[in-house]
């Protein structure tokens, strides 16, 4: 038995099922980009699971899409700027931009939807891409797909800031600007890990982590039994939550206030650039799983004890801030959260992966249909019949 477990541990470490493969490289213009002409199998944040295994391919310009020339001829185009939600943690044909293109082509075969989503991009990366590259595709409609951690990605990148004269300053994309101090675990020394010794030891085994993250979620009855007898923990409390959880705080510090201000100014710049090239512009607000499922709120409160005092009652705070801004600036937007909550309430079918905050295939399908209806209702699509 021991030999079998040892061999299994070695196999898991060698195959590296527990971590996604590298597909991002630094870029002197955008900050980071996908490796061009890449073709690899990815497992997302849910190792092993067939549900999350997908083939990742990038084109010659580092986009997760087919090849597109800058010249659009007589085609009509939508360019979607976004992060990993837009790029997708599913097979390419199941990403919401690709599903949206398929839906549009039911009425007009001239439509093209270009997926300009990248893992780890914030609003700063998206602006820099559009400013230097994205505009060349001559899109009829530019959509910014916004997720809350775009604000904190921007903050930690340090590419932009507001100076003492209230001017937006571009500092460049050098890694020297990276705000490492923002992601360091400031509470690490005072945090006490209360787990029994055997659980602490088990947590260092890749096989144990692999089983807990990838295998057991497919067998909920077994998982619940092992949880009840204390053999596994569904969450392991940690001292420092990811930086984006600071967006739910009752009060923001100066860094977070500035990050929101920079985000809003960059959104306006994308809008202005779009209008200048005769494109329409709109924003789609992507939801987080803890906004849709009550058990996710409980999970993160257990995982990060430090957020318990504010997380639950501020779970929609980032949405409210952005929506207020978009309304003030008369920017068309689609808030997906109410529709996702209604769908889940009626069907009890999850729209996000269980061990990952990203949308599953069903979530991408619902998003594509909602975006299509929103575009039609708001007359964002020129020359489309029905």
Strand order of the largest sheet: 6-5-7-10-11
Shape: globular
Q: How would a textbook summarize the main sheet?
A: 5 strands, parallel
Q: Count helical runs.
A: 14
β-strand percent reads 5-15%
Strands, total number: 11
Head-to-tail CA distance between termini? 64 Å
| Helix-strand category | alpha/beta
Helix percentage: 25-40%
Q: Quick check: average pLDDT?
A: 84
Rounded Rg: 22 Å
Q: Spell the H/E element sequence.
A: HEEEEEHHEHEHEEHHHHEHHHEHH
Which key features would you list for this structure?
globular, two-stranded antiparallel sheet, 14 helices, alpha/beta
SSE arrangement:
Blueprint: H1 2-15, E1 24-27, E2 31-34, E3 39-42, E4 54-57, E5 76-82, H2 84-87, H3 96-104, E6 111-117, H4 123-132, E7 141-146, H5 149-157, E8 160-162, E9 168-170, H6 197-202, H7 206-215, H8 220-228, H9 254-276, E10 280-285, H10 289-292, H11 294-303, H12 317-328, E11 333-335, H13 337-347, H14 361-377
Helix pairs in contact: 1-7, 3-14, 4-9, 5-9
Describe, in plain words, how this protein is organized in 3D.
This protein is α/β, with parallel strands linked by helices and 386 residues long. The protein is built from 14 helices and 11 strands. The protein has helices at residues 2-15, 84-87, 96-104, 123-132, 149-157, 197-202, 206-215, 220-228, 254-276, 289-292, 294-303, 317-328, 337-347, 361-377; strands at residues 24-27, 31-34, 39-42, 54-57, 76-82, 111-117, 141-146, 160-162, 168-170, 280-285, 333-335. The strands form 4 sheets. A 5-stranded parallel β-sheet has the order 6-5-7-10-11, sandwiched between helices. The chain has a two-stranded antiparallel sheet with strand order 1-2. A two-stranded antiparallel ribbon has the order 3-4. The chain starts with a helix and ends in a 9-residue tail after the last helix. Residues 16-20 and 185-192 have low confidence and may be disordered.
